[in-house]
Amino acid sequence: MVRLNEIRDNEVAIAPPQAEDAALVFIGRISTPWTSRLETPRQGRPDGPVCTIEIFEPWVAALKGVERFERLEVLYWLHQSRRDLVLQSPASNGEVHGTFSIRSPVRPNPIGTSIVALEKIEGNRLFVRGLDCLDGTPLIDLKPDRTLFKPIAPPQPGDFETGQVHMCKKIDG
Ligand code: SAM
């Protein structure tokens, strides 16, 4: 069984438009025990192996305060993914799902996110559990877990707005 870049029964690939707008800056590199996509966890787990996130200069100063959070949200670039599937068959059984209804690494912009447990920080290296990416995966961003984060900036009007029925589309079914 192959499950790397092949097209499976009923999957649909499109010709993606040329990427020409957002230019990402990789701010670091993730080291994990996994060198094959066939062995990497489908989703990280909080008791998974300790992995290392190395932050590159000039971004190391941006780690100030990160140690206060026991959990972080990590965003990374799933650099070995194809990017052209709109329908995918994760079980390889002919049943297909829309790309935006699943968390497959195959996406138009292959961004992975995980909530990780922060074990410690040493200089420009963070030691975390909860990742599910290949060794060498480029790092896009780090943020405190939103459930632990209280905005530091003063509140603004939108913070107090509640939903208005006319702004929401009713979804049938
Ligand atoms: N937790 C993230 C999420 O939900 O956004 C990623 C989930 S994705 C299902 C995890 C899978 O992506 C792994 O099991 C592996 O097959 C694949 N993967 C991991 N690192 C990758 C990389 N650098 N490039 C391409 N695929 C990768």
From TrEMBL:
Keyword Transcription regulation: no
Matches recorded under InterPro entries: TrmO-like_N, YaeB-like, YaeB-like_sf, YaeB_N_sf
BP GO terms, sorted: methylation
Any one GO molecular-function label of the UniProt entry: methyltransferase activity
Pfam family for this entry, one: TrmO_N
Keywords: Methyltransferase, S-adenosyl-L-methionine, Transferase
Occurrences of domain TsaA-like (ranges): 24-154
NCBIfam families linked: tRNA_TsaA
Family, as annotated: Belongs to the tRNA methyltransferase O family.
Name of the molecule in the record: tRNA (N6-threonylcarbamoyladenosine(37)-N6)-methyltransferase TrmO
